[in-house]
Design a protein that fits this description.
It comes from Bacteriovorax antarcticus. Keywords: 2Fe-2S, Iron, Iron-sulfur, Metal-binding, Redox-active center. InterPro entries: Glutaredoxin (IPR002109), GRX_PICOT-like (IPR033658), Monothiol_GRX (IPR014434), Monothiol_GRX-rel (IPR004480), Thioredoxin-like_sf (IPR036249). This is Glutaredoxin. The chain is α/β, with parallel strands linked by helices and about 120 residues long. It contains five helices and seven strands. β3 and β4 form a beta hairpin. α1 packs across α3 and α2 packs parallel to α4. It is globular, with a radius of gyration of 14 Å. It starts with 9 loop residues before the first strand and ends with a helix.
Amino acid sequence: MTNPFAVVQRTAVEEENKNLDINTRIKNLIDSSPIFLFMKGVPDMPQCGFSANVIRILDHHGVSYKTFNILSDMDIRDGVKQFSNWPTYPQLYVKGQLVGGNDIVTELMQNGELEELLKA
């Protein structure tokens, strides 16, 4: 685990420019933070158990991250599935690369690989 006294920022973001094409909008969201999570709800109020679990895991590791509530924008919700070729939420991205959803994030945490990935 990282420094328990580190200041962690969990920021739910909104888009700045909805006039761009959907892939550019999604890429801009992902690029807004080294660790980015598309989820149902916001960090303080996840709206599904899988999103809540990934939030707990990220918080446990003491990392700062940004999120986007896919329930707030159907274009993003549908577009991310096409963009990532991943059918479910949440979706965790680290340094612009899709890590996966709840099952993969949980497995990576259990085998110790997630900490290394988040530190890199």
